[in-house]
Amino acid sequence: YRRGVRQVFIIDDSFAAIEDRDRVKEIFRLWRRSGIDMEWGTSFRVDSVVANSDLVEEAASLGMRFSLVGYESLSQRWVDEYGKGYANGVGVEDYPEVYDVFRRNGVLVGGFLVIGYPGQVLADVKESLARFRTVCDVPIVTVYKPLKGTAGYRKCVRQGLLTKDMFYHDSQLPPLKGAESILSFYNRFFPRMQLHPANLFSLLYSTHAGYTAMQRAASRWFLKGLLNGNRHNMYDFLAFLRHRDEPPQKQMDRLTDRYLNDDFVRQLAAPFL
């Protein structure tokens, strides 16, 4: 704070967890006594908000303006099937209430949503994402990627669903068999969301300065990505189009051979040596 910092993000996937209530209350007490005035954000679990909504109110009074919430899915079926639910009876039907607690206290919500679980079809994904505005201001969507060492990975191996080794991955490649249409939808979702009339209306007329700033930052990030095209990523994009019928493992091998060879790594390191 003495160095001029006025915004901070507290990295804690379970900030204000139910069993952590007393410690967080003490942090808030000392924070208030310090007189430090900062805007800040962190991550809240759904069940923590349901059990301790007063902590959100107190956090907002101390400057919390943004929270990440791991909703995972807006379908109870997929939450249950992949062990993303809560043991205390909290379910998907509680998500809008959780969002309302944040909204009442002027806190923006970024909602983590996962699509492409094994067995999901495109209709499931569309139905779920169509309702994101009931649980968050900004959806943070990812395609399910079963990472090595997880129960989901072992399940996908047993069912023979993996399209490739999952040590390296690229968002243009489907991680699971049958996920091609979902991946295509995912890659179109963000630009369509940004250009949706409801989003443009909110961007122009929202009275929440933080929401406007967030949406503009997201738009700038997207445009900057387009403007920062270079011969390498343009080559990769065209290669994906040209070889889209190739097995994902073969396409991944092409990328790793291209970028993880000694010559390319030396080129990257050269300016810093």
Describe this structure in words.
The chain is α/β, with parallel strands linked by helices. The model has no long low-confidence stretch (mean pLDDT 89). The radius of gyration is 21 Å and the shape is globular. It has helices spanning 21-34, 46-51, 53-61, 76-81, 95-104, 122-129, 151-158, 180-195, 197-205, 209-227, 231-242, 248-259, 262-269, and strands at residues 7-9, 39-44, 64-72, 108-115, 138-143. Strands 1-2-3-4-5 form a 5-stranded parallel beta sheet.
Summarize the structure.
The protein has 273 residues and is α/β, with parallel strands linked by helices.
Task: Pick out its properties.
273 residues, alpha/beta, 5-stranded parallel beta sheet, 12% strand, globular
DSSP strand tally: 5
Q: What is the distance, rounded to the nearest whole angstrom, between the alpha carbons of the first and last residues? A: 34 Å
Strand content: 5-15%
Discrete helix count = 13
Percentage of residues assigned to helices? 40-55%
Largest sheet, strands/sense/barrel: 5 strands, parallel
Shape type: globular
Radius of gyration, Cα only, in angstroms?
A: 21 Å
Question: Average pLDDT, to the nearest integer?
Answer: 89
Give the topology.
Elements: E1 7-9, H1 21-34, E2 39-44, H2 46-51, H3 53-61, E3 64-72, H4 76-81, H5 95-104, E4 108-115, H6 122-129, E5 138-143, H7 151-158, H8 180-195, H9 197-205, H10 209-227, H11 231-242, H12 248-259, H13 262-269
